[in-house]
Amino acid sequence: MTDGDEQPPGRTTDGDEPRSTVGTTPGAAPAPAPVADVDAADADPPSADHTDAAPRPAVAAPRPAVAAAAGDGEPAPVPSENADGASDAGEPAADADPPPHPVAPPVAGTSPSPHPVADTSRAPYPVAVAAPYFGPPAQPGQEGTRTVRTRRRWPLWTALGLALGLVAGAVPGVLLRGSAPDAAGRPATKGDPGTAAQRRLGERMLAQLDRQATALVGADRTGFLAIAEPAARPALSRRYAALRALRVTTWRSTADGVPAEVGERPGEWRFVVTVGYCFVVPDCAPSTVEVGTRWRLAGEEPRLTAVDPSSTDPAGVRPWQVNDLAVAVGKRVVVATTPAQRGRLPGLLAQAETAARTADRYAIGGRPPDRYLVYYAGKGEWQRWYGGGRPKWTAGYAVGVGGGRHDVVLNAQIVTPAGIDDLLRHELTHAASLPDRGYADRADWWLVEGLAEYAGADGQPVHRYDGLAEVRDLLRGGWSGRLDAVAPADDASDDRVGGAYGVGYLAVRHLVDRYGEQRMLDFYRAVVHQGRTPEQAADEVFGDPWSMLHDDCVAYVRAVVG
Question: Is the pTM value of this prediction over 0.85?
Answer without folding.
Answer: no
